[in-house]
Amino acid sequence: MPEGTVTSADGTTIAFTAWGDGDPIVIVDGATASRATTPENAPTAALLADEFLVIDYDRRGRGESGDTAPYAVEREFEDLAAIIEHVGHGRPATVFGWSSGGNLALNAAQAGVPIARIALFEPNAAVDDARPPLPEDYVERLDAAVADGRPGDAVALFMTAAVMMPPEMVDGMRGQDWWQGLEAIAPTIAYDGRQVGDALSGKPLRAELWDGVDVPVLVMHGIDTWPAMVAGARAVAAHLPAATLQPVPGQEHSTTPDVLAAALRAFIKEN
């Protein structure tokens, strides 16, 4: 499996790993995740490498990818476009996004990144009382915590407001060895906050949010996942005219590589 880097439009180096050959499948991680921390990605890619070129990349500011200030959501669209063009050789690409990585995929397609089809696993949406909405000043508070040298507070805000963990549980996590790793990428939590935008506002999704997304979309959720994740997946699928909703075996905001690989293979062949 070759590893390498591409240079995005603003000069940022984006690191990737690739498996196989054929039309590309690009994996986009969600908040705080990277190639090194998402255990499902590599075995999923290996299962699909007989027929597809599967590309897993570190989003900017994480893992082995660089970062360039100031951030804007468009920079991540450019990162994805660079991966598709230079690693995927411009062939028709399927983009698969975990969680808020799915929101990024939809936003990129809306912005004109050449994507043939989109698959999502539990994208972020809150349009009713299934979960509390994000605070209106969520991104601003994240940015302020990082700017003030309080990355742990940014991580804690993400855990409580976005992941919906009890504050006392999060307080107990601060002493864990892996907490420092989250603090190191704390600036990127606000990146996902911007990608999610107002989809977690508790209000109906804006009609124009993804009205330019006219490619096939597969929206998956785990059968035994948290109820708020099911509600979000259903809301996104209902909002997109070319979307199919597919419950799959899985729980706690994830599924297994064999389930995911089979679902992606079937979706691509059907579309």
Write up this protein.
Keywords: Hydrolase. The chain is α/β, with parallel strands linked by helices and 271 residues long. It has two domains: 3-125 and 206-270, 3-Layer(aba) Sandwich (Rossmann fold); 138-196, no CATH class. It is built from ten helices and eight strands. It has helices at residues 41-48, 73-87, 100-110, 138-147, 151-162, 167-173, 179-184, 187-196, 227-239, 257-270, and strands at 3-7, 13-19, 24-28, 53-57, 94-98, 117-121, 217-224, 243-251. The radius of gyration is 17 Å and the shape is globular.
What's a concise summary of this model?
The chain has 271 residues and is of the alpha/beta class.
Highest-level CATH class of the largest domain: Alpha Beta
**Terminal residue distance:** 27 Å
Rg? 17 Å
In what order do the strands lie side by side in the largest sheet? 1-2-4-3-5-6-7-8
CATH superfamily of the largest domain: Alpha/Beta hydrolase fold, catalytic domain
Order of helices and strands: EEEHEHEHEHHHHHEHEH
Overall pLDDT score: 97
Shape: globular
CATH topology group of the largest domain: Rossmann fold
Give a quick account of the main beta sheet: strands, pairing sense, barrel closure: 8 strands, mixed
The secondary structure category is alpha/beta
Range of helix content: 25-40%
**How many strand elements?**
8
Q: Roughly what fraction of the amino acids lie in strands?
A: 15-25%
Number of helices: 10
Protein name: Alpha/beta hydrolase
GO molecular function, one term: hydrolase activity
Keywords: Hydrolase
Domain AB hydrolase-1: 45-263
